Each structure stands twice: as C-alpha cells, then as structure tokens.
Amino acid sequence: MAFTLTEKIINAHIISGEAVKGGEISLKTDQTLTQDATGTMAYLQFEAMGVKRVKTERSVAYIDHNTLQTGYENADDHRYIGSVAKKHGIYFSRPGNGICHQVHLERFGKPGKTLIGSDSHTPTCGGIGMFAVGAGGLDVAVAMGGGGYHITYPEIVGIKLSGKLNKYVSAKDIILKVLKELSVKGGVGRVIEYFGEGVKSLSVPERATVTNMGAELGATTSLFPSDEATEQFLKAQGRGGDYVELSADEGAVYDKVLEINLSELVPLAACPHSPDNIKSISELEGKVVNQVCIGSCTNGSLQDLFKVAGILKGKTVHEGVDLSIAPGSKQVLNMLAESGALSDLIAAGARILECTCGPCIGMGQSPVSGGVSLRTFNRNFLGRSGTKDAEVYLVSPETAAASAVAGAFTDPRNSDGAEKTSAYVMPESFLINDNMITLPADEVDAANVEVLRGPNIKPFPSNSRLTESITAELVLKLGDNITTDHIMPAGAKILPLRSNIPAISEYCFAVVDEEFPARAKAAKEKGGGVIVGGANYGQGSSREHAALAPVFLGIKAVICKSFARIHKQNLINNGIIPLTFKSDDDYVKLEQGATIELPFIKREIENNEKNQKEVTLRCGFKGGEHNVEIKLNCEISKRDRDMLIAGGLLNMFKN
After folding, report:
1. Within 13 Å of residue 194, how many CA atoms lie on the same side as its CB?
2. What is the DSSP code string of 418-439?
3. φ, ψ at 353 (rounded to 5°)
4. Residue 615, exposed/middle/buried by CB under 10 A (0-12, 13-18, 19+)?
5. Which of 92, 524, 585, 588 is the most buried (most CB within 10 A)?
6. DSSP per residue over 113-147, as a string?
C-alpha cells in the first residue's frame, strides 16, 4: 500500500486510536516548544500536574515575544520560565537568541519527528519534514508530562509543485497563492503536504516560509519531504546525523490535489485585513507606502535578508518610509554582520531590531494613523499592528525591499538595479554558537533549583464540573472570521499581562466591543455568559488566553457556524462548551442580550455518541416574545466529552 509522508509519520507515532480519517488518535510527542507569551501559563499548568521532569526527547522554552521591558512583568516571566526550565529538564533559549521557529529549525528540528508547540506557527518545522503542530499551552504541558497529543486523523491535501520560481518571485508568493486558492478556512481538519518536481528547487528556508503560513489556512500542519536540500541544510548546521530521507510513496493517494506551476507565479500581496485577500503587486503598483517591516518567523532567514541587502545595497530608503528589519535568529544576525550585508542594510537607512517577533505581534513599530504598512509577516488582522485604522499588507522580502526604496508598491522584478543582485547561495557551514541556550540541571541537581515567581504571576483560572443545566446571558454576538486577536489582543500594553489572567481579561474582545468585559462579569454574577459567532471562529494564533480570559469572565459556551481547530480545542481544554448551528437561520434567531438556556446539557454531553451529537437550546427575550427552541450540533470526541464533564483537561488529568 502506498502512503503519503503524513500518513507515514502519523502511523509511526500513534499511541491509541485507529488510522481512519475522521477518527480520534493520540500521538507520541518527540519534541515540544513554548514561547514566553504562552509559556508562563503552560509551565504553571505543567507544575500543577506534579510531574518532576519532562518525558519528551527534547523540550525547549524560548523567549521571543515579550522582550520589550517597559516594566518588571516581562522580565519576571522570563526569570520564572528560565528557572522552571532548569528544574524540569527543559532547554532555555534566552532573550536575543532568536524566534522559536527559526531557532528550532536551525538547531533542534529533526525529520520524521513530532513537535507540539504552544504557538500556531509551530508547523514552520514542517519545512524539514517534521509533523509539527501548534496547540494550546495546556496540550503542550500534558505532552511534556508524557501524555499523548490528541487530534482527529486528518484529511491530506497534496499540493503538487512543478517548474521553478523566477527571479524576484518568492516562497512567500507560493503560500499566498495557496491561500488565494484554499482560503483561511481551507486547511481546517487537513494536513497540507507538498510534493512534485518543483519541491527540489526550494531550499529549507523557502520551504519553512510556506509551512509557517500554513497556519493561516487553518491547517493542522504542513510539511515537505526530507531530501537532498534537507540534508544540505542540516549538514551546514552541523547536524548531518539528524538527517533521514522521507517522502511520500509513489502512487500515494491524497484527499485533494492542487497543482501549482512555480514558473507561472508573480509577486503577490495579502491585502487588509485577511491573509487570503490576495492581489498581484502589479494591481497595487504605485500605491504610497508609509512603513515596511521585514523579518519575523516567516521571512527572517539568512536567505531572506541577504536578498533584501542585495536590493538595498547602495540605495537609500525613501524619505516617506520607515523601514525596520528583525532577523529571525542570532545566527542570522551574526552572519549578516560578518558578511557585510548588515552594513548595507544600515547604510540604506534600515532600523535593525532585536531577533524577536516584535512588530508581528504588535510589540512596537505600530504604523502611523491610517498608514500603509508592508510586512513580510504572516498575519494582517485588524488592529494587530497596534494601529486600528492602518492598512497592513503581507508581501515577500523582495517586494518589501523594492517598495521601501521607491516609497510605493513596486514589483521587485522592475525595481532599479534588480538585475545586478546576485543569487543567494546557502553557506556550506552556518555560524554555530549555542551560548544563548541554557541547559537544564541534571536530575540530582534539579532538586536544589528554586522556581522564581514575580508578583505579576497569578494562578490560572480553573473551571468547575459541568452542571445539569446552564442558564446564561448572550453577552456578545459576532460575525465571521473572528480571530484570537479579536478575542484576546496582543501588543506592548497587553502582552506583559499574559501571566495575570484577571488583569488581561479586562482587554478581552476590546477590538470589537470595549464594554464586553464589564457585561460578561455582570452576567457571571447571575450564572454566566454565552458568546455567538459566525464561521471560522477563533482563527489565527494558538493563544490559550483567548479561552482562559472567557473562563475567568464566566463564559459557559460558544455557539458559532464553525470553529478554527486550535481554538475549539482550547475551549474544550478549559471547560467551555463549543456548539455549532445546524443552519444560518438559527444563527439569525439569537440576539445579544437574550437569555440562553441549555436545559439538558449534562445529560446530552454524557450521552454524546457518534449519531447523537445534539444539544437543546432555548432562547428567551424580555417580555416573552420570540422565544425559540433549536437544536445545536456538538461535535466532540469521547475524550472531549470527559473533559467538558470534568470542567477541563487539567481537572481530568488530576482525576
């Protein structure tokens, strides 16, 4: 029987369940990663489990999100994570070492292994043939403790690549093309697997750009085969022994196939405010640009920034443009400096930022009011940049650099001096210096390591066991494509509160309704609240706080047309019931302010079987008018059912 690469890796890691599409399976976790925006909560949860030492082959804690230290909060969180890591067997990547996905790709990722990370862009490591999945912090904590990672056995979409990219057409343009074809909902419940002759022409950094933004498709993960390019990359990183050749079998069958001829691609942009709102750069040519930001885990590789330096060399950034560059890792920054490319960037007028996520998560570099910002990042959701009325476009590094010089959208193929820029050649050996990675204490010395907690670190909220019935207020009704940035915004003001759920909950849904926290707390006093949303609710980041803050505010259930994968699981993990409408007509019937009753909820959840996944909802309005009763879908697994009854994963794990 012929297998896809995805099937090979999944089947080799199944702990429980059967390899049947749509069935629940549990996977052995080889590696985990966390970052500081999600890590503090993940390690608090790990400590609560009482496990003394991680049980994975390799777990790494990265500091890369909350590095702007305008108060003590971020620094305290970093100190806490470092002490927990040392005590419990976790490698600790210190501030300045780089962005988790870039560093993990460089120093730790291994073809054929599984990686579970508390960041939605963990699939970046699919660029070297890992089955790398973004998850909530609690799922990662359980994986570190030796528990399996549970997913639905996915459909597998094969994307067949042919041809070769033309000069100044980028890997970013590949994934933007895929987003145009499949949309931000097109990967839900699916793995995206790349194959075909065109794969051979792509380097590992280019492949990682594509798999990184598979998160924007809503995909479980994305991956490329492990081949000669993978071996070359790992050897250059001094890790040739980690190489394993892996690819789909000849004749492997995919659930769907999309074919892309790389030779036919042109420079593209994702327009405001969604990664799948795609236009060609030629359609936007001449539109004035105010800001350009280059870097992030999507396009912060040495290859990306060498190309940018080539375009900027001998030129000056346009007077109307503010250009900033954030290298993906210390390794990249060091090599830019040694090669002289960093001097070219600085001479052109670029502002060099830390090797961190930075502006990608709204941590500095907010655009001017109503400004146009070109970014080589992965998301352009409304308000994510820190400027609510800004127009944020996602583009390739080549397009960003050419436009920074011109002061307007510019096709890099037509930029001045483009033909003089030499092609990038991957070095035979990268500069390897792991001095910013702190090793954990051994098991004997770990007993003497003190875990250090600052005053901003508060206990995480826990839910209670499911009651027989729920009566709650419909405190918020929303439309389609609500992101985790809408639910729990990022940015320099809010991110330092990630370890303080009572404080951060005050900003829950602030992007769409500043009165929501107060309204939810008032409803909590009377029994709780319910949120109603549209399609693809919870897309975007894996941030568990988008479930933890609603738990703290008393939200009992979320009802929508459809959920994004990670957020739905985060809701279940924290005891919030995810329900979906059977029809759009039922969505219309529910109005904000109504009283929602789930009269038989515990019995219906307990009896949730394959063909009986329904929940009864009764909705009442003041004066008794327009009262309705509808049936909702409750698509959950047996394990999800047990979690909801227990009041969340941690309660179930303790029991």
Report:
1. 36
2. GGGSPPP---SS-----TTEEP
3. -100, 175
4. buried
5. 92
6. -EEEESSTTGGGGGGGT-EEEE--HHHHHHHHTTP
**What does the pLDDT look like over 74-84, one tens digit per residue?**
999 999 999 99
With 80 as the cut, is the pLDDT of residue 655 above it? no
Angle at 183 between CA 250 and CA 613, to 5 degrees: 85
Asked whether the whole model's pTM tops 0.85, one would answer yes
Could you tell me the end-to-end alpha-carbon distance of the chain, in angstroms, rounded to an integer?
41
Alpha carbon 103 to chain centroid, angstroms:
16
- Give CA–CA dist 412/415, Å, rounded: 5
Side-chain half-sphere exposure of 135, counting CA atoms within 13 A: 27
What is the signed CA dihedral for 36, 41, 44, 46, rounded to 10 degrees?
-90
Per residue in 378-414, is it b (16+ CB within 10 Å) or e — as a string? Answer: bbbbbbbbbbeebbbbbbbbbbbbbbbbbbbbbbbbe
Instruction: Give the mean model confidence (pLDDT) for residues 531-551.
Output: 93
For residue 518, the tally of other CB atoms under 10 A from its CB is 11
DSSP state of 442: P
CB neighbourhood size of 417 (10 A): 13
The Cα 298–Cα 238 span in angstroms is 23
Instruction: Round to whole Å and give the CA distance between 175 and 214.
Output: 7
HSE-up of residue 653 (Cα within 13 Å, Cβ side)? 23
- Which residues sit opposite 116 in a β-bridge? 32, 133
The answer for residues whose C-beta is within 8 angstroms of residue 136's C-beta and 6 or more apart is: 38, 118, 542, 544, 547, 566, 569, 570, 573
Quote the DSSP letter at residue 204.
Answer: H
CA-derived radius of gyration, the chain: 24
The residue that leads in pLDDT, 486 or 363, is 486
What would the two tokens of residue 131 be? 């089955």
User: In this predicted structure, what is the pLDDT of residue 622?
Assistant: 54
Percent of the chain with pLDDT strictly greater than 90: 84
Residues 6+ apart with CB under 8 A from 505: 517, 549, 552, 553
Tokens for 350? 């670029």
Contact call for residues 119 and 35 (beta carbons, < 8 A) = yes
Check residue 163 and give left, alpha or beta (phi > 0: left; psi -120 to 50: alpha): left
- Please give the mean pLDDT across all residues of the chain: 94
**In what side-by-side order are the strands of the sheet with 24-27?**
14-16, 24-27, 149-152
| Model pLDDT, residue 610 | 61
Q: Per-residue pLDDT tens for 176-231?
A: 999 999 999 999 999 999 999 999 999 999 999 999 999 999 999 999 999 999 99
Q: Name, in order, each residue with C-beta under 8 angstroms of 282's C-beta and a sequence gap of 6 or more.
A: 266, 267, 411
Q: Is the pLDDT of residue 415 over 80?
A: no
DSSP summary character for residue 259: E
Q: What is d(CA 215, CA 184) in angstroms, rounded to the nearest whole number? A: 9
DSSP annotation string for 594-606: -EEEETTHHHHHH
Sign of CA dihedral 126, 135, 62, 350: positive
Residue 82 token pair: 């470092």
**DSSP secondary structure of 487-540:** HS--STTTGGGTT-HHHHGGGTTTTT-TTHHHHHHHHHHTT-EEEE--TTBTBS
Close Cβ partners of 623 (under 8 Å, ≥ 6 residues apart): none
